[in-house]
Amino acid sequence: MIPEKPGIMLVEDEIHLARGICFNLEEEGFRISHFESGEKALEALEFGHFELIILDVMLPGMDGFQVCRAIRRLDPRVPILMLTARSDDADRVEGLENGADDYLTKPFNLVEFLLRVKGMLRRSSWYRPDPVEEGYRFGNNEVFLLSYRARTAQGEIDLTEMEVRVLAIFFRKEGQAISRAELLQTVWGYSSDIETRTLDNFIVRLRKYFEPDPAHPIHFQTVRGVGYRFNQKNSRESV
Questions:
Q1: What range defines the domain where residue 163 resides?
Q2: Is the domain of 106 the same as that of 179?
Q3: N or C: which end of the chain has fewer CB within 10 A?
Q4: In a 3-state reduction of DSSP, which class is residue 181?
């Protein structure tokens, strides 16, 4: 039996750009469903499943941030790559805060775009915890990797695929400094020569979920010149 091609949803209203993206992704062996508005994309998500969603920020009607939040209510796990014409770091942070897993600024390099798509898809089923639903506790938090959820001081939250992957690495290497290159390669599939703030903004998101004071993290710590370290206990070390 021939395996089914990975299904990708593209939400993009610039028709010429959308045609180019669809053509190149189909040439790479993917199955593409294109929608010109967020409303139509959300209708399709009610009935269909996709391995990856590529979402433009500037859309007619609902903007990409609103659509991203709505997607997360329907499917908290599916990887989301946001496309934005805005180069402001604040806009990229807003996308990640609304549930996106990565972003790419237009105009983008086609090779880099395809590498990011392939990396996200390749790791969409990379991590599967052992089939024992035992919560991982740290501070006032309890994380259930198998069911993609967590209990925090703010209440219970759903976790995305990318969040589970990052947390799994941190839990497995608790107390160790993990380089940016290792995290980007293992979670997003990026080579070490790609410059991106995705990881840093992603850590900001995790700190908002799990830290008592996100501005002074005790669990997800920055290790200068290296990357990040996770501490299970409430300890603030000099890094």
A1: 136-230
A2: no
A3: N
A4: helix
